[in-house]
Design a protein that fits this description.
The radius of gyration is 21 Å and the shape is globular. The longest helix has 17 residues, at 298-314. Strand 5 (170-175), helix 7 and strand 6 form a beta-alpha-beta unit. It has helices at 18-31, 50-60, 75-89, 105-116, 131-140, 164-169, 188-201, 258-269, 277-292, 298-314, 338-349, 375-391, and strands spanning 37-38, 99-102, 122-127, 143-148, 170-175, 204-208, 234-239, 252-256, 327-331, 351-352, 354-355, 366-370. The chain is α/β, with parallel strands linked by helices. The relative contact order is 0.17. 39% of the residues lie in helices and 13% in strands.
Amino acid sequence: MTNHKWRSQRLDRLGSAIFAEVSAWKAEARAQGVDVISLDIGSPDRPPLAPIREALAEASLKPDMYRYPGTEGSARFRAKAAEWFAHRFGVALDPSKEILSLMGTQDGLAHLALAATNPGDSVMLPDPGYPVYQAGLAVAGVETIPLPLLADNGYLPDFDAIPDAHWDKTKFMLLSYPSNPVTTVADLAFFERAVAVAKRRGVLLVHDNAYSEMAYDGFRPPSVLQVPGASEIAIEFHSMSKSFHLAGGRIGFAVGNAQVLDALRDLKNNIDFGVFLAVQEAAVAALELDMRDPHPVASIYEARRNAFVRAMREEGWDFPPPRGTMFAWAPVPAGWSSRQISRAMLAHAGVAVIPGRAFGERGEGYVRFALVEEEERLREAAQRIGRFLREHEPVSDGHSDY
């Protein structure tokens, strides 16, 4: 029997453990000799471009790179982030007050509630939504108000359908477009409505824009800060992980309302000492390269999207093509739960995915595919899944395990 004497009860509120479960499923399958195609975790499979890696290597040899970097980020990185933001979104930022470096956006998102709320406060989170949103609230002792994202509404929230009582309790509302896991996008008109309702209701608007450079069919995702006056009530998170394949470098940044960023900085000053300076130099090189000679990652994932969606349709599993992110969000065939089919596809087809239920109650009935393999491998995954669907019937006993 496990002794939980030194285990915090907060951990029981951290949300779904399905990511760890899927990892265990994969280990079990590989131990049995299965060639697993991992479409579960959204970890970029390509390295950063050579100039970015070279900047990291060169910086790592400099002796002054090994001091404590400072939580707020180097002045050079923040200045370059401001320059890139103006280039990309046409928005001027004060690098000293309106930009904060982060160990990836997950760092900022996980700590935000500790910095901006008090125990007993409430926060609106998208449902389905990225699990770290809920985890940050659990650690902070903050209650969640689900913000339904429904297919019939294009996975955009209906602000008018939210009861006044929910608005009255809400400290901040979190949005994310392009959206993980539901892969939809939002235009500037949507953010104009979101800013207006946040101002009217007196809540902080938090936008996770980690996939700002990963949208398809010619669409360029906006920043919420493009809305005039948004910085009065909004902050936004940006990631270097997906856009520039720097996931292992752990670097991102937050922009927007200076008071909120100051609170987050004060919290992090008591937790960490910032991002390794050589990694910040690599990020500077990535931003400079993007402004000078862009190599958009969207083209890579759009080609993968097209190949995978087409191959899945040929195998009989048809779903709307994603409009952004590095994922596909697919309704499961009739008769299956999201967990059942995920477990069964790994066991019988060697394809690992994440059950939609991991992303919230409204994620049930879906699975998320991560497009983190080359096109040939994605087509192979689709063929394996097709064979699995033809050979296996849904579980009928009602239990969640396959």
